[in-house]
Amino acid sequence: MSKVRPSPWPSPPAGEGTGAAGSLSPFEGESDWPAGRMRAQFNTRFNGLTMRAAKNTKRNLVTAALVAPAAAWLCVFLVLPFIAMLVFAFCERAPEGGYQAAFTFAQFANLPTRAAAFWNTLMLAPAGALLCLLVAYPVAYYLAVRANPRYRLILVSLVVVPFWTSLLVRTYAWMYILGSRGIPNLLAMIGIEDVRMLNTPGAVLLGIVYGYLPLMIMPIYVSLEKLDRRLLEASADLGAKPVSSFFGVTLPLSLPGVMTDVALVTILLLGEYLIPQLLGGGKVFFIGNALVDLFLQSRNWPFGSAIAVTLVAVVVVVLMVAMRIAWKVAGTRQVDLV
Amino acid sequence: MRALVSSVYLFLYAPIALVVLFSFNAGRNASEFTGFSAAWYGKALSNTFLVSALQNSLMIAFTSATLAAVFGTMAALGMERLGPRMRAFFDALFAAAIVVPGVVIGIATLVALVAVFSFVNPALAMIWPGDHPPQLGLGYGSIIAAHGLFSMALVAMIVKARIASLGRDIVEASSDLYATPLTTFRLIVLPQILPSILAGFLLAFTFSFDDFIIAFFVAGSKTTLPIYVFASIRRGVTPEINAIATLVLVASLLLILTARVLMRETKSKSGE
């Protein structure tokens, strides 16, 4: 047994350690160190700190330089325009068009005159997104689970390619098909006369599904592909039929991805202009069409700004609801498979 | 199941195929195919308005995508080093730039720029020494700025996701072996995030090249290809538009194929 030296420091709590020199008690070393060594260590630590401080300033400068251009861009072309639009919404329309300074809620009080645009948008955007989901989910499921791995890359590319091509051109193609010389013309040949397809809500919905299908398929495909196959095997081993495996395992696990996907597409649809313009032909119009009219044709900027501000508010509400649902679903269902 | 999926693919491609087919139609009639001819392409390409719109679109897309790739990547790298609060703040701003509808971005930019110009132009006229002071106005600059906003956020998001998926250990190993931060960045980080930067650039390019609604608001008197196509569609469906539409489709197709080839090459190089 070694002798315990008397020390000026409070003795380490006995119990866990043996109290003998050379034990691994965390207090041991400190109590043994002479004051001089302590100071030396403090000094090197202090020098380390000043060096670290200098290093930190340099580091901060580099960080600032890296984010500065993006920050400036966001301020000048996102934050500032937003403030400007908000200010305009409380202005008055000048007699010759454009705007004049004022502070009035008249523009917001005027919103009901465009109720039809809001109604169409708030009905058709979520409906279009859900319809899109109904078509997209089986395709995504097939690509992720059923498709032959040899052809998977090609099949996925074939879904991606339309997304990369102009929405204007793709929507225009449907104008062609649904127009009077397209399907109605063919129907007239077999005796069904006077079918109107273009400029109906159905045409707009079709355009929405067509335009946003790739965007709906891809995230669902990604979330289904990441799904751990062992879970499905386990489910089958436990005697589940493929159908109940799907509803018990695959579908719930892909739900968070599906939710955010539907929310994303809905939000993009809330601001849609081209599809209702080309396929709705002024009969089925969205908020976006009202905005183009107010800014570029009738030049009522303050009223247009008020509508745009309201549209942003709607987008924010949809986003918050979607995030809350996704959070809830993810919170209770997420399985960590790392 | 397979039948369902096949019909979805048919649904995706039949309209596009129809436009391409009818762009080769010899006759004027949009509903009857009367024979093959490339005449409408000749007509489209000798249309000076169309060609200049195409040039404008390419220039705007290239400039905004390049700026977005550079600044977006810088921002993604910088955000890694920010504190959690500042990072959340940037995340929110970037998310806003992506989620806010294009219509609203277009309007807000239009309103703000017109308001700013109404102050700046008289001031410029006062202090300008010569007779013809420069008049700031809407045009290429405003389209590039508005497209760049979305594209930058897009690149930042993509690159940030890639950085987050990188292993920290290889970066630490590099600095343990006395590589300077810059060397570590050049040899370790950059090769790994390059595919994402390229993907972001090409995505940004196609976004800008295809965007109609933002440019519609902030283009001023300038015309981009989508604005030109939109205006001609409103005048009526003609085979010439089909030819233009086919050219746009082919351009996008070449872009995405280039992107895929580039990305695969970079991937196999950095994967070793």
> Under the CATH scheme, which class of chain B?
Mainly Alpha
- Count of folded domains of chain B: 1
**CATH homologous group name of chain B:** MetI-like
Largest sheet of chain A: none
How many domains of chain A, as an integer?
2
Give the helices and strands of chain A as they follow along the chain.
HHHHHHHHHHHHH
The amount of beta strand of chain B, in percent, is: under 5%
Describe the biggest sheet of chain B?
none
- Which spans of chain A have pLDDT < 50 for at least 5 consecutive residues? 1-33, 332-338
**Total number of beta strands of chain B:** 0
Figure out the total of helices of chain A.
13
Family (chain B): Belongs to the binding-protein-dependent transport system permease family. CysTW subfamily.
Main location (chain B): membrane
GO cellular component, one term (chain B): plasma membrane
Membrane topology (chain B): Multi-pass membrane protein
How would you describe this protein?
- The complex is a heterodimer of chains A (338) and B (272).
- Chain A is mostly helical and 338 residues long.
- Chain A has two domains: 34-75; 115-333, MetI-like (MetI-like fold, Orthogonal Bundle), CATH 1.10.3720.
- Helices cover 72% and strands 0% of the residues of chain A.
- In chain A, helix 4 (115-146) packs antiparallel against helix 10 and helix 5 (149-164) crosses helix 8 (201-225).
- The longest helix of chain A has 55 residues, at 35-89.
- Chain A is flat.
- The two termini of chain A are 49 Å apart.
- Chain B has a single domain, classed as MetI-like (MetI-like fold, Orthogonal Bundle).
- Chain B has helices at residues 2-23, 39-45, 48-80, 84-99, 102-127, 140-165, 168-176, 181-210, 213-218, 225-235, 239-270.
- In chain B, helix 1 (2-23) crosses helix 11 and helix 3 crosses helix 10 (225-235).
- Chain B is globular.
- The chains are: A mainly alpha (338), B mainly alpha (272).
- At the A-B interface, helix 2, helix 4, helix 5, helix 6 and helix 8 of A face helix 1, helix 3, helix 4, helix 5 and helix 6 of B.
- Chain B: The chain crosses the membrane at residues 54-77, 89-120, 140-159, 187-206, 212-231, 243-263.
- Chain B: It is found in: Cell membrane.
- Chain B: This is PotC, ABC-type spermidine/putrescine transport system, permease component II PotC.
- Chain B: One of its GO terms (cellular component) is plasma membrane.
